[in-house]
Amino acid sequence: MQMAAATQIPANTSTPRQRLTDSHGRVIHDLRVSITDRCNYKCVYCRTGEVGAQYPELGIDEYLRLIKLFVGLGITKVRLTGGEPLLRRGLIDLVKELAGLRTLSGEPLDLALTTNGHLLDTLAAPLKAAGLNRVTVSMDAVEAPTFERITRIAGSFEAVLRGVRAARAAGLTPLKINCVLLRGFNDDQIEGFARFAREEDVVVRFIEFMPLEEGRLWSPEIVVPLREIVGRINRILPLVPMDAREASETARRYTFADGVGEIGIIAPVSQPFCGACSRVRLTSDGKIRTCLFSQVEHDLYGRFRAGACDAELRDYIFRTVENKEARHHIGEPGFLKPSRSMVHIGG
What is the CATH number of the domain that holds 33? Predict the structure, then answer.
């Protein structure tokens, strides 16, 4: 596939009144794009281990065109996700093209990627050279036996550790490590991760377990809440709260009392942050999801394939985002899991 050089991408011409804003007054500037729902791991909190890819992938040039439409409506941050995005052929080309885009204010996109890290060892340097700003690695334990019990892949811990160190060496920083905590599975790793943050010079972020798995594992009792996480770390390494960098930041941030290292806690179950949400998602098959827990998907790619022009597609995006949900309803009577699990939505 022959793609246009990044320097040939035209400047955006959208006016400020075209910026994405929902009916609740939230400005939407963060787009997460899944470029595959395939994954080389079978994490127990995510997959049954029996279901592979379920949805088609677009061409790399098609993702680029759709992302450009969002950028023309005020998106400033793009995160590539999956599944496992490092499995996708053409990823380096896509990153190069996205790195050439400019936001409405003329700045480069804030371009990031979330990965399980298994293939990052050899791809970190090429991704950085292509224009990727930073990377987040999903890593749910700091002890090999626990890690491999979760991923159900032998040798996965050492592969991810090599990937983390390669990403840091390549300058894909600040390097974030995301750990989904499940009581009885990996909650014994909290203190170890606090030390890991300091020793490896990474930002460790604990994430409360959400009902987004393929099976029926989730229950409120499995969730390890923010207050417990902070309390346990405080007993060994005192934490100091940090100010949020922006209103839509999802993590509560802490540093250690001596100023070395950072911990973040993303607590959508015990302390929801929907009121400041600034993001939408595009699935690997080109559907807009305005919330992780949306019950409805919006077929942007279907309109693209049917021949809609860019102006029509931008109008569809604008109207879809305007109707973004006010909040999720985890734990409330009548709550329904989304039709797709997390691996098929994109993180």
Answer: 3.20.20.70
Backbone angles phi, psi at 218, to 5 degrees: -65, 140
Q: Does the residue 243 lie in any domain?
A: yes
CA gap 159, 130 in Å, rounded? 22
C-alpha–C-alpha distance, residues 14 and 170, integer Å = 35
Q: Into how many domains does the chain fold? A: 1
Q: Give dist(CA 78, CA 86) in Å, integer.
A: 16
- pLDDT computed for residue 11 by the predictor: 37
The pLDDT assigned to 216 comes to: 64
Q: What is the mean pLDDT of each run of 10 residues along the chain (347 residues)?
A: 36 55 95 95 77 82 98 97 96 98 97 98 98 97 95 95 98 97 94 97 92 70 93 96 85 94 90 85 96 90 97 97 86 72 75
Q: Are 294 and 52 in contact (CB under 8 A)?
A: no
- Examine residue 13 and state whether it is found in any structural domain, yes or no: no
Q: Give the model's pLDDT for residue 9.
A: 37
Domain around 206: 26-345
- β-strand partners of 134: 112
Alpha-carbon span 162 to 176, nearest angstrom? 15
Q: Identify the three-state secondary structure at position 333.
A: coil
What is the rounded CA–CA span in Å between residue 84 and residue 143?
Answer: 22
> Based on the number of CB atoms within 10 Å of its own CB, is 307 exposed (0-12), middle (13-18) or buried (19 or more)?
exposed
pTM of the complete model: 0.90
Give domain status of residue 250, yes or no: yes
Predicted pLDDT of residue 13: 43
**In the sheet that 110-115 helps form, which strands lie side by side, from edge to edge?**
239-241, 251-256, 262-266, 203-208, 176-181, 134-138, 110-115, 77-81, 30-34, 279-282, 287-289, 298-299
pLDDT at 7: 31
Taking the CA atoms of the chain, what radius of gyration do you get in angstroms? Answer: 20
Structure tokens at 56: 């088609």
